[in-house]
Amino acid sequence: MLFKQLTAYNIQMPADEAGRRIVLNTKEWRACIAQQAMNHSFKALTDHQVSGTGWEVPEPDINQEYLISVPAQDKNIHLLCYRTDERKIPNSAIKEQLNRQVAKIERDEKRAVSKIERMTFKDEILAQKIPHTLPTPSRVLVVFDLDNMTVLIGTSSEGAASCIKSAISEQLLPEYEVDESPIKARLLPPVFCKADARDHMTHWLTCANDDMPINVCLSDSVVLQRDKSKNIAITGLGMDSPYVKEALADGYRAFKVPVSIMSGDIEMGCITLDKYGAFNKIDIPNEFKSTVDKEDEGAAWQLLYAELASTALNYQYVSDVVMGAFGTGDALDGVLARVARSAAQWAEGMQRMGGVVVMPAEIT
Q: d(Cα 89, Cα 86) in Å, to the nearest integer?
């Protein structure tokens, strides 16, 4: 299983004047998203820009469209690419030049350099170095599944996902007028557990192995929480250790629980469940990780597609394990189930487009 990086959101449509949910018009959304992505396209950095963001053509070898419809059983699945360029100047280089400049003033002028002067010198050094520093590009693929009303962002970084989510909401989504006020749809995270996930996870810490959820194994670390107390982080100890038992007896509950996701006896990867029973990434064994020549841009693009396709294809497996662990099962007729369907359809579409994917038979 190659579940590596994915952040998923559910599209919640706004209500009209009568309190009824506005129906998502797929043709209207596709046209709007495509046009707005082009309007907010990525522009090359100027000499004095440190960073820049924007939407980019996701498959320049196929066409020059900013939004590509992925063939998957004639579903409304669309692909975009968000690009971030940043000029990364090592702090050590700035500090070294700043120290030389300060030392020269202190030696020649026999005086101390103020904090304001140091900040001014630092800004001047940055301004000198920025034009001569090549920007580093970063690309993240974004999937809109309008039939299942989900958005899949190809990153597990909380900061990157939040930034892209904001860009989607502010730049791409159609605007509706309700009571003479403009309003947009909301992007909401998946719900993994209907009850309090901390109760489930605290039980795992005290139960026998036979009572653990299927395909879930505890690790040797956990974060415990109690109201009006500092969190306790425990690592390198079994969950049956006296230290863990004493904390639980003292009113602490599971707050963050790293677990292994299993397929039989094979460890497929590790996730960390939070107090809501949610997770945003999985760490996979090195033998499952693909590598490419970073200088080969074409190979890097193929890896980007392959990783997101493999991620999406396996999201259904991981979500089934998590929902089973919390006893949610098929009762959760919400965003997580729709995300799983989006993932499977997206992966099938990627295969039709020639993407490298792992088929379900290979991961069960």
A: 9
- The pTM of this model reads 0.65
Span 258-297, pLDDT tens digits:
998 887 887 767 788 888 787 766 666 655 555 555 566 5
Distance CA 272, CA 282 (A): 8
Could you give the CA distance from residue 301 to residue 92 in angstroms, rounded to a whole number?
A: 32
Residue 297 CB partners (closer than 8 Å, separation 6+)? none
Q: Which two tokens stand for residue 300?
A: 């890097």
Reported as a single tens digit per residue, the pLDDT across 33-50 is 999 999 999 999 988 888
CA distance 118 to 112: 11
Residues with Cβ within 8 Å of 198's Cβ and at least 6 positions away in sequence, in order, are: 225, 253, 254, 255, 275
Half-sphere exposure for 170 (CA within 13 Å, toward CB): 9
Helix H segments across the chain?
26-39, 91-108, 115-129, 158-167, 197-206, 242-249, 297-325, 335-352
* Phi, psi (degrees; rounded to nearest 5) at 55: -90, 145
Rounded Cα distance between 225 and 229, Å, is 7
Report CA torsion sign: 263, 266, 269, 270.
positive
**Token digits of residue 363:** 């991961």
Query: How far apart (Å, rounded) are the C-alpha atoms in residues 334 and 332?
Result: 5
The region, left, alpha or beta by phi > 0 then psi within -120 to 50, assigned to residue 329 is left
> What type of residue sits at position 182?
P
For every residue of 3-64, DSSP letters joined together read --B-EEEEEEPPB-TTSPBPPP-HHHHHHHHHHHHHHTB--PPPTT-SEEEEEE-S-TTT-S
First to last CA, the chain: 9
